[in-house]
Amino acid sequence: MRRGDMPRELSGIIGLITDYGLKDPYVGSMKASMLSINPRITIVDISHEISSFDIAEASYVLLSSYRIFPRGTIFVVVVDPGVGSSRKALLIETNNYYFIGPDNGVLRPAADEDSILRIINITNDKYFRKPVSSTFHGRDIFGPVASYLTLGIDPLDFGELIDLKDISDPKLELSCSKFGDWVKT
After folding, report:
1. Cα–Cα distance, 175 to 152 (Å, whole number)
2. Chain-centre distance of CA 128, in angstroms?
3. Are 96 and 107 in contact (CB under 8 A)?
4. Which residues of 81-117 are buried (b: 16+ CB within 10 A; e: fewer)?
5. Burial, 78: exposed, middle or buried (Cβ in 10 Å; 0-12, 13-18, 19+)?
6. How many CB atoms lie within 10 A of CB 163?
7. What are the residues facing 99 on neighbouring strands?
8. Are the C-beta atoms of 145 and 100 separated by less than 8 Å?
9. What string of pLDDT tens digits covers the 185 residues of the chain?
10. Which residues contact 6 (CB under 8 A, 6 or more apart)?
């Protein structure tokens, strides 16, 4: 895809999956950061009760739910044991959706299933909330990028294209049940 090519209409919907829980102000702060960029988005809380740092569980929840959403939905998944490290921040475009989160394998099962079109390493801090916390990339990087994307910002403005071989492999092993459901094994 060339610069300016968007694979689909954006729905204006952003689905969130985190391990933040609901006791503390983290989910609210992340949503406030996103809404301050585009107050017209619809934010859907898929789950904020993922076990702390459990990449496989978050991957499973994303894989189990993303297909229900309208085409053009953006999914932000923040389960990030490597926050504050040098791991990449990713925006993955697929046939029908966008997936945003850390490069730790959490996005791969769903993105692979929907056929990856391109992968962007998010590096353009013009789209980050300032100052960027070393431990709250959901609020300061991933959420804002998702909100700017709903405004029609070209995905390539967020960073540079990278190859599939340059990102982390999935951390989830799945099997198909006799009912056709994916189950974590």
Report:
1. 37
2. 15
3. no
4. eebeeebbbbbbbbebbbbbbbbbbbbbbbbeebebb
5. buried
6. 8
7. 75, 92
8. yes
9. 455 555 568 999 999 999 999 999 999 999 999 999 999 999 999 999 999 999 999 999 999 999 999 999 999 999 998 887 889 999 999 999 999 999 999 999 999 999 999 999 999 999 999 999 989 999 999 999 999 999 999 999 999 999 999 999 887 666 666 676 666 65
10. 152, 154, 155
Q: What ranges make up the beta strands (E) of the chain?
A: 13-18, 42-47, 74-78, 89-94, 98-102, 116-122, 159-162, 174-176, 182-184
- CATH no. for 13-184: 3.40.50.10790
Please give the structure tokens belonging to residue 14.
Answer: 């952003």
